[in-house]
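pinned: reference chain
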Amino acid sequence: MIKRLALLTVVAGIACLIAACSVSDRAIASAEKRINALKAKGVPDSALSPCLVYLYQAREMKKSHQAGESRAGMKMLRIELAKAEALYRDQIANLRPTVDANLATINAARQRYDGLELKKLDSLTAVVDSFLRIEWLLQANTKAEEIIKRLPQFDFDSDRAKEIRPRLAGEWVCANKTTSKENKAINAVEKKIFIFEKDGTARLVENKKGQSGPYLREDWEFNSWGKWNVNGDTVRLFIDRFAAVRQNFQRMYLSDGGKKKEWRNEPQPTYDSTITDGSQDRFVTFTDLQSDFEQVKKY
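pinned: its structure tokens
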């Protein structure tokens, strides 16, 4: 009995010693709090990922009663946390003047643009502003530097758009025929018509009529309305209304072993819809417009 009590006492003592040598819950919680504080200040994940790895090691090894591994993880965690906090203190916290200087460069360039170039630049700059509002200075500076690197492309696109706009107003038509040497009945014409008004409004007419295959005749037209603008070499149509003017189809059905042929009308309903999600927006490069379309009218 005395030996048993002595053994229990030794075991209890060892357990207490192990517990005393383990990483405390308080230490783990404190380290996690410091990591979250750095995240909130905008320290990037790349700088914090080693901290998270060692935090996981310290916590999970403690759970599995591997005190030595837990202590080793906590030791490395303290080292990596010190590095991350030094990064914030020495580099990130002092970035505000640099960010402000980059924004000044961007705002000066902004005066050179209009139309889609200006809209795109403002959209990119809004991201910088959103980072600044939450004091994520490193991300704000990185994004601002990315924008500055793109300014030469903005200049090129702006100059090209200013050149194209006055040449675009008018009516552009592209017509394609579908024919077949083997089946003379196949003879359909498909047209696409862009109408660009001087006031920036646009209309797109698409239609097709004729027999386009051995078993199909088509007679349909779709109209789109919206606004146009130019970004670089690309003409963009922002469609806010789309209408199916007509959708008349005929299909040939065979019976009696293919001896009997019958054309059946299969019309589809017409409709006129307001578009708010950009699903009908279109684009065409000015190069393709010139090569594939004929400008039948100039405004």
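why pinned: Residues 25-32+41-94 form one domain. Confidence is low (pLDDT under 50) at residues 5-20.
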